[in-house]
Structure formats: C-alpha cells, structure tokens
Amino acid sequence: TNNFQYARSKFENEVKNRKVFSGRLKCLRKKANLSQQELGQKLGLSRSEILRLENQKRSPSFKTLIELANTFKVPVAIFLIPNELSELENLIKTFHKLENIEKDSDSKNT
Question: Which of 11, 54, 74, 82 has the fewest CB atoms within 10 Å, counting from its CB?
Fold first, then answer.
C-alpha cells in the first residue's frame, strides 16, 4: 500500500507540475505575441513539440526549460512554482525590476 501511495503521489505531482508549466508556457508565449511555430523556431523545436508542451502531453527537458526562461527573460522558477496567474505577472515584474537595479548598479561601478 505504501508503494502505491508513493507512486500515486509522484504521479499527481507530475500532473500538477506539467499543468503549471503548460499554463505558464502558453501565457508567456501569448504575451510575447509568438505563435507556436515562431517559438519553436527560436528554440529549435517543431510546432508540434511546442503544442505537446502546452497541452501537457510532454514535460520539457532541462535544456528546454532553461532556453524558455532565457527566451522570455524570466527565472526558471516561473515555470515550476504553482501560483495564480496574477501572482505570476507580479513575480515577472519584480524579477525585471531587480534585474534593472542590478544592471544600474553594475553600470555605476564601471
């Protein structure tokens, strides 16, 4: 029974994580006004691979996760932490503000 509960818990977490990732990917892609085809081209993936990621049919590789974060200029955690979408937008804004503060600080030190 413990093995079954463990397996069920792992499965439920995987489904939940895939759902979070898929929703974030679709939201960020649309905010960037990119089609699935265009995003796929940027990442070296096919449109059907992007579609599978957005439809929870496939989990991203670690490399794809990093490339997506770089493409959208967001931290990787954005794709993994289950927050409400309004909280997601606030997290992204905060991240960009911190990034700008860091850039300003770096330029003043040079």
Answer: 11
For residue 48, the one-letter residue type is S
Instruction: Judge whether 81 and 20 are in contact, CB under 8 Å.
Output: yes
SS (H, E, C) the chain: CHHHHHHHHHHHHHHHHHHHHHHHHHHHHHHCCCCHHHHHHHHCCCHHHHHHHHCCCCCCCHHHHHHHHHHHCCCHHHHCCCCCHHHHHHHHHHHHHHHHHHHHHHHHHC
- Other C-beta atoms within 10 Å of 88: how many? 20
Q: Are 91 and 83 contacting, i.e. CB atoms less than 8 angstroms apart?
A: yes
Q: Which of 27-31, 48-52, 85-89, 96-100 has the lowest mean pLDDT?
A: 85-89
